[in-house]
Amino acid sequence: MKTLYKVGLCLLQIGMLLVVSACTTPVEHPQAVSNFPKIYPDYVGVTIPVGIAPLDFNFAGGSFELMDVVAKGSKGGELHVQGDFADFDIDEWHELTETNKGGKILVTVSVMQQGQWRQYKEFPIYVSPFKLDAWGLTYRRIAPGYEIGGDIGIYQRNLSNFDEEPILTETDVPGRCLNCHTSNQTDPKEFTAQIRGENGGTLISIDDHSQWVNTKTDSTKAAGSYASWHPNGRYVAYATNSVHQSFFTGRSSNLEVYHKFSDIILLDTKTWQLVLAPQLQTSDWLEIFPAFSADGKTLYYSTSKACNVPAEYLKVKCSLVSIPFDAATGTFGSKVDTLLNGPKDNRSYVLARPSYDGRWLMYTVASRSNFPIAQRDADLWMMDLKTHKTRPLPEVNSPQSESYHNWSADSHWFVFSSKRGDGCYTKLYIASVDNQGRVSKPFLLPQRNPWEYYHNLFDAYNVPDFTKNRVDFDAHQAHRDVFNGERRQVTIRP
Q1: Which pLDDT score, from 0 to 100, does residue 469 have?
Q2: By CB neighbour count within 10 A (0-12 exposed, 13-18 middle, 19+ buried), where does 64 fall?
Q3: What is the 3-state secondary structure (H, E, C) of the chain?
Q4: ∠69-71-73 over CA atoms, to 5°?
Q5: 90, 107, 230, 411: least surrounded by Cβ within 10 Å?
Q6: Are 411 and 134 in contact (CB under 8 A)?
Q7: For residue 338, what are the contacts with CB-CB under 8 A and spacing of at least 6?
Q8: Which residue in 165, 144, 156 sits closest to 426, CA to CA?
Q9: Residue 175 contacts by C-beta under 8 Å, 6 or more apart in sequence?
Q10: High-pLDDT (> 70) share of the chain, %
């Protein structure tokens, strides 16, 4: 009986192999091409973490009848797909990346054009030895023209596959502008989000307990935005500002975004009081983009001299500064240290993001402005907090703007938005950093059939962040909370 079973199993396996073989056109007598294949996205030489969604790609080197792809691991394992695009099985891809952790995957692309196979030079995909400690990403999707609302939404994406789901969209709260969703060092058990417009408010969620608050007081100019959590989860720093935009005609740059005022406030979620430090609320300077250090003892932010915008938009040069913070008393130090002087360097330094291991400080550099996503020359730079040496990151920068970056919990990965490609729509890229600060070539957030996905999506991605776990959020309850208008009014700490 066992013998008959084994024979039957073998025949079944042979039958399955025959079926697969019958559906595959053999690559016979291919013409060798000495160049790497032109593919979309450009995954040639990128570094990926184990368990990332498959790096599906399209051939972008002209018309063709069929594409054949073999992905072979340097430590073992092989995948073979054939079709209109490279469509890898998710489970098989995960197994291949796990087997080749710290090694590489060698990819051979063959394309049939006018009945003749052309086989391109093999290219590597490196599999990092560093684990990506994240379930996924959160981000905002918005039309790139900020003069319109549209379907603004905060979304989350599972990084191990292609699943995306909304956290909160404009459909849930019609007519309101949804600002960024900010968690505490990638942990969604503590997060905050802001809604602007009528019945706007600030959402504070701690350990599944949500509270809508009004951070606007007689002593503050606006409600809070651009949030940063203190590592202990008690305090949240916000900027209070007004965002405006002007449009150019007859120029390659068509948009200028600016803030007419901006201060930084601190919310104590235990007492529901605002801490107002005069060093962070000056009348002749704009303080913006707060970010706590990994140990919570320092608050980084940007500051620029107030000027007559939009007429004097070229004068907006932000410096990167820091101020001590004492979590025990909830107070700031009196001395503000300038790390990078914007007016002196004729640059603007914004969006400081310290790594959670305390080693690196990543920020955006542009020729002007406190809104770098609208600046074509905006690039990512990094400071070594041990030596205070700084350098640009040519490994990830492009001729278009790079901005809105955030770190993974283990500080070996970062995500950022970039307008490379079309100069209009920001997309999300992920890159790694090793212990010496070496940065890998970034890879575009994987999608199944990426050409079709990205060229049919008329949204820009911004304010991305890693999330340790899936965000469990009740959008229906949020709708009720927004429209009932009930808000806890914060007070000012005496």
Answers
A1: 95
A2: middle
A3: CHHHHHHHHHHHHHHHHHHHHHCCCCCCCCEECCCCCCEECCCCCCEECCCCCCCCEEECCCCCCEEEEEEEECCCCEEEEEECCECCCHHHHHHHHHHCCCCEEEEEEEEEECCEEEECCCEEEEECCCCCCCCEEEEEEECCCCCCCCCCEEEEEECCCCCEEEEEECCCCCCCEEEEEEEECCEEEEEEEEEECCCCEEEEEECCEEEEEECCCCCCCCCEEEEEECCCCCEEEEEEEEEEEEECCCCCCCEEEEEEEEEEEEEECCCCEEECCHHHCCCCEEEEEEEECCCCCEEEEEEEECCCCCCCHHHCCCEEEEEEEECCCCEECCCCEEEECHHHHCCEEEEEEECCCCCEEEEEEECCCCCHHHCCCCEEEEEECCCCCEEECCCCCCCCCEEEEEECCCCCEEEEEECCCCCCCCEEEEEEECCCCCECCCEECCCCCHHHHHHCCCCEEEEEEEECCCCCCCHHHHHHHHHHCCCEECEECC
A4: 170
A5: 90
A6: no
A7: 319, 320, 321
A8: 144
A9: 149, 197, 198
A10: 92
Set out the domains of the chain in order of their start, with CATH numbers: 31-127 (2.60.40), 136-484 (2.120.10.30)
| pLDDT number for residue 11 | 41
Instruction: Tell me the pLDDT tens digit for each residue of 224-271.
Output: 889 999 999 999 999 998 887 877 765 556 678 878 889 999 999 999
Across 254-279, b (16+ Cβ under 10 Å) vs e yields ebbbbbeebbbbbbbbeeebbbbbeb
pLDDT in tens, 185-203: 999 999 998 887 777 789 9
pLDDT bin (cut points 50, 70, 90) of residue 149 is low
User: What value does the mean pLDDT take over residues 216-226?
Assistant: 88
Q: In this structure, what are the phi and psi dihedrals at residue 215, rounded to the nearest 5 degrees?
A: -90, 0
